[in-house]
Amino acid sequence: MEKKNNDNNITVFMYHYVRKIKESKFPFIKGIEFNIFLKQLDFIKDNFNIITPFDITAYLNCQRKLPNNSCMLTFDDGFKDNVDFVLPELLKRKMTGLFFPNAKACLNNDLLDVHAAHLILSSYNNDKLLLDQLFKLCIDQGINSKNILLWKKITLNKVYKYDSAERVLIKRMFQYLIPLKERTNIINQILKKKIGISAKDLAKNFYLNLENLKYLLDSGMFIGSHGYNHNWLGQLSYEQQKNEINESLKFLKKIGVPLKDWVMCYPYGDYNNDTIKILEDFKCGYAFIDSGGTTILNKKNRYHLNRYDIKDFKFKNF
Known about the structure:
Largest sheet: 7 strands, mixed
Oligomer: single chain
Number of helices: 13
Low-confidence stretches: 1-5
CATH class of the largest domain: Alpha Beta
CATH architecture of the largest domain: Alpha-Beta Barrel
Shape: globular
Mean pLDDT: 93
Radius of gyration: 20 Å
Helix content: 40-55%
């Protein structure tokens, strides 16, 4: 591959699910198959120089240059996949990763709505059928049909990069469109009917626990903040955002993460000017968004750093 000579251009990869998907209870979930992950790691090791969060901090503070073709691996949401599949392979290749677990999910065994949506979607083979069922459950929960019509109007007549319009609407309904109380009821109804298990029981073996997280740190890995409740930060008030980030820092401190120049990853890539002000006040080193492309490091954009979704990167030969 072509070598980069500008040391402030680095490549940051973003992973979510990494597992033996076809052998799992959710064989249609969207993620990276373990055997493909191994090939990706070998390619990355052969073609990039892996750097750590400390290297980026030092570069931004004009204390260190970075090698050509610098690369960082990031893993979002704190899935058990991180210790079952990811960590052993990183250690085997003497590579490091930066992990962004969600505090509430890991501390309380709470299945996040976004992940409930993934699991439910992976259990259906027909998005339109699921969407129709969701509409019916919303009506049963007392949600006004005018709201549903508005959701359809805003979402269903567009073309999206990764998903069908129906799937995008399903995800948004689970994430924020359906009010929290009704959303919880609907999620539990579908999980019990379709999968035969409650959200709480599902979450127990779905997320990393405190012991797992401390093991990641002891193994030479790095952990940053991914919020406390995994909220869309840009939709919260200033005080709500401040509390969300502060609680996530308490979580990092609890598992032993140093808070000097700590790293943020915005849930859903969502933030606003209030978020930036709060990060500055809390002495955040830098923050990642989830739009694709090369990461360009400088102090002006330290709270807007790009990452490649691993699905968007073109690996050679596989």
